[in-house]
Design a protein that fits this description.
Layout: E1 4-7, E2 10-15, H1 16-42, H2 44-51, H3 57-73, H4 75-88, H5 91-109, H6 115-118, H7 121-149, H8 157-185, H9 188-193, H10 198-215, H11 221-228, H12 236-241, H13 244-269, H14 271-279, H15 284-298, H16 300-312, H17 315-340, H18 342-350, E3 353-357, H19 371-382, E4 387-390, E5 397-400, E6 403-406, H20 410-419, H21 433-451, H22 454-461, H23 467-482, H24 486-497, H25 505-521
Parallel strand pairs: 3-4
Antiparallel strand pairs: 1-2, 3-5, 5-6
Helix pairs in contact: 1-5, 1-7, 1-8, 1-10, 2-3, 3-7, 3-23, 3-24, 4-5, 4-7, 4-23, 5-7, 5-10, 7-8, 7-23, 8-15, 8-16, 8-22, 13-17, 13-21, 13-23, 13-25, 14-15, 15-21, 16-21, 17-18, 17-21, 17-25, 22-23
Length: 532
């Protein structure tokens, strides 16, 4: 029986080859779902001109980020709905439904009208489809992780489920490559007119392949066992969250592990894309290629630390990632600025900018109304730091180096910045590509520490009868509600503070929270039986 996989429920008729098929099928479908989900985020800067009013670019971009985050907010609802299906009917049924819903919603984005055609109906439709995507994804990750873990041997659950963790990165890379391919083949005007729809419609092909492969799978042995014994939960939602012994585990998992994992993952992979393209003004081709290469090089860390957690335990591997993130996120992002746009880094070091006025407002979605608001909006879009100072006069005064500009005069502000060495875009010839790649790989090292073990940890933490429901909710609250809005809140914090790095306090704060709570309350799970 050397080719069989032994678990707590006995020797199952599952060979190692069949286990590889289980991991591949679950991972492939999850890659596809993440591809769908990240297409929107990868085109966020581009979408602000397609689906929102163009009279306030900063507000439009924040609206795009809010819509992006909205897809995360409904993930916990999807987790509850599909978790209940998975715990009552079966794991396989749940994640076949999720992948179908995600594929249809994504393809629909590829045929929807723009703001120029239907006005505010466009952002309403986009938000609706984004919510549908998030709802589907809420049931996907938990189902795939549980399914793989329940097929795996006790000493391999961290390693096997870490392949599920790599799918988020793989989906992001795939979305970047498909978008880059379209933009290289099409001229800018064609891509803006209709070419952006191709990556979304391409998801129909991925959907067909993924559903076909998943239909070939059978139900997990652990679920089959409790089903045959009549031990499935009649009310997995109330049992998971209505009984204190289970709710306590949910809260510990959420605040001691998942919120920290979520923000470290997002800051290490996705927010860095916004930062490099939006703040540092690196051309999209350079940005996509650099990030894709770094993610490819860094993704093995996820599997490595998933494997390591099988040997030394899940808890301290994850906690070391939170510690490193809290300590190094800020200096790594500063170093990325130096490497990706050295002229901007020089400008930030040598040029002090102040904005002084009486009427300064913090605008998120509204159009700048005062001269001070307009000056701040311009500086924010330029990706520079500035200091806001109170004044008794209503008219704004902007000081850039030794030059003083009275009132809002965009041409004069831009001229003053240029005179002090401000670059409108990153110079491709000056980008230190190996350094940028290396720094993002360093971020991926921390992503591996926190993301590699987390699926196995969550699966092992909860009993089989409520496992799908109980693990999915904290995962999607932490990765959805908290981490999903990282780009939005980080951008808003930077606007408020007048500092391009201020937004990093958001992921740093949650990493510290998980470090403290995890150290005090997180249990070790690697030796727990799944047959309970």
């Amino acid at each position: 029986m050397s080719d069989s996989v032994r678990t707590e429920v006995g020797v199952r008729p599952v060979t190692k080859a069949e286990l590889r098929k289980v991991v591949f099928a679950a991972s492939l479908g999850t890659v596809f779902e993440w591809y769908d989900f990240y297409l929107y985020g990868s085109l966020a800067i581009f979408f602000s001109a397609l689906f929102y009013p163009s009279d306030n670019p900063t507000a439009a971009f924040l609206a795009v980020l809010a819509t992006y985050g909205a897809g995360y907010v409904v993930r916990p609802i999807g987790a509850l709905v599909f978790g209940r299906i998975g715990d009552k009917v079966g794991r396989k049924v749940a994640f076949i439904i999720t992948i179908t819903v995600m594929g249809i919603a994504t393809a629909a984005v590829g045929v929807m009208p723009t703001f120029a055609s239907v006005g505010y109906v466009a952002p309403a439709l986009l938000l609706s489809l984004r919510l549908l995507q998030g709802f589907a994804l809420g049931g996907e990750y938990g189902g795939a992780a549980v399914y793989v873990a329940e097929h795996s041997a006790p000493g391999e659950r961290g390693y096997q489920t870490s392949w599920i963790a790599t799918t988020a990165t793989t989906g992001l890379i795939l979305s970047l490559f498909v978008i880059l391919g379209c933009r290289l083949v099409l001229d800018a005007a064609s891509f803006a007119a209709w070419g952006w729809r191709i990556p979304f419609l391409f998801s129909l092909l991925l959907l067909a392949v993924s559903v076909y492969i998943r239909l070939q799978l059978s139900e997990s042995p652990a679920f089959k066992k409790i089903l045959s014994e009549g031990r499935t939960s009649k009310a997995p939602i109330s049992e998971s969250f209505g009984e204190w012994k289970n709710l306590k585990l949910v809260l510990i998992a959420l605040f001691g592990a998942v919120v920290g994992e979520g923000v470290v993952w997002n800051a290490g992979q996705f927010y860095v894309l916004f930062f490099i393209t939006g703040t540092l003004k690196v051309d999209y081709q350079d940005a996509y290629l650099l990030i894709s290469i770094a993610l490819i090089l860094g993704t093995p860390f996820i599997v490595l630390f998933g494997w390591l957690s099988d040997k030394v335990g899940r808890k301290w591997v994850m906690l070391s990632g939170f510690f490193l993130a809290a300590l190094t996120l800020m200096p790594i992002y500063m170093a990325i600025t130096e490497a990706a746009n050295p002229k901007l880094a020089d400008f930030l070091r040598t040029t002090h900018i102040t904005v002084e006025a009486k009427d300064c407002n913090f605008n998120v979605f509204s159009k700048p109304s005062t001269d001070c608001d307009k000056a701040r909006d311009l500086l924010t879009r330029a990706g520079v730091n500035y200091e806001l100072k109170p004044s008794q006069t209503a008219s704004v005064t902007t000081r850039i180096g030794d030059r003083e500009i009275l009132g809002f005069d965009e041409a004069s502000i831009r001229s003053a910045m240029k005179a002090n060495g401000y670059p409108e875009k990153a110079d491709p010839a000056l980008i230190n590509r190996p350094a940028v790649i290396g720094l993002i790989v360093a971020l991926m090292f921390m992503v591996g520490l926190v993301f590699g073990p987390v699926a196995a940890f969550l699966v092992e933490l909860f009993p089989t009868r409520i496992r799908y429901t109980a693990m999915s909710l904290p995962y999607h609250v932490g990765n959805g509600v908290i981490a999903g809005f990282l780009a939005f809140f980080a951008t808003a914090f930077s606007v408020y503070a007048g500092n391009i790095y201020a937004g990093l306090w958001y992921p740093i704060g949650f990493a510290v929270l998980s470090l403290v709570i995890g150290t005090l309350f997180l249990p070790e799970t690697k030796d727990l039986s799944l047959d309970r």
